[in-house]
Design a protein that fits this description.
6 helices; globular; alpha/beta
């Protein structure tokens, strides 16, 4: 079964190592898995029930929900900002969690990975993101990939050219693929 995995990157910076990690996931997705990088998280307004109204939804939020609804699974790339999840990624989760009980995350496999400058690779932020998507109704995939020392490790090498990272990403995507295939059966 071919599985479409939507990648959301929690950093908006053009040179973001998490964006580079997502690009590596696109490049190294194993056979049967297609990783699609979502563009536009920075255009989505902060979640507010007053603007989450049928017929007048912000176009950026509609695009996010449509992309997530058409995906079989999601892969979130989270840096760590002040020990927690970046606001842009949390905002995306909030939009995807609605309508309550029937949002685009409901029963959908979601994995969280990432890289950060610190020695733990952003594990706190990734744990917070897993908690948030789980509460939002997603099926959290039991896999972790936190790459420390991002600014040094990827200073001269793109993550897609790092053999260890490529293998780890392929393993993560393989597990997400298996969860999505199992959920569809």
């Amino acid at each position: 079964m071919s599985v479409r995995i939507l990648a959301l990157v929690g950093s908006l910076r053009a040179g973001s190592t998490n964006r580079q990690l997502a690009e590596a996931a696109v490049k190294h997705a194993p056979e049967g898995a297609e990783v699609v990088l979502f563009e536009g998280l920075g255009d989505i307004p902060f979640y507010n029930e007053d603007i989450d109204v049928e017929g007048s939804l912000p176009a950026a939020a509609v695009a996010l929900r449509e992309a997530a609804n058409s995906a079989d699974a999601l892969l979130l790339f989270s840096p760590e900002y002040n020990g927690t999840i970046p606001a842009v990624l949390k905002n995306a989760i909030d939009w995807l969690s609605r309508p309550y009980g029937a949002g685009a995350l409901s029963d959908k496999p979601v994995a969280v990975v990432g890289t950060a400058y610190g020695q733990f690779g952003g594990v706190w932020a990734q744990d917070e993101a897993r908690k948030s998507v789980g509460i939002a109704g997603a099926k959290v995939v039991d896999v972790k990939l936190a790459i420390p020392g991002s600014l040094v490790r990827f200073a001269e090498t793109h993550p897609s050219d790092d053999a260890e990272v490529a293998a780890q990403l392929a393993e993560v995507i393989g597990l997400v693929h298996a969860e999505a295939t199992s959920a569809a059966a």
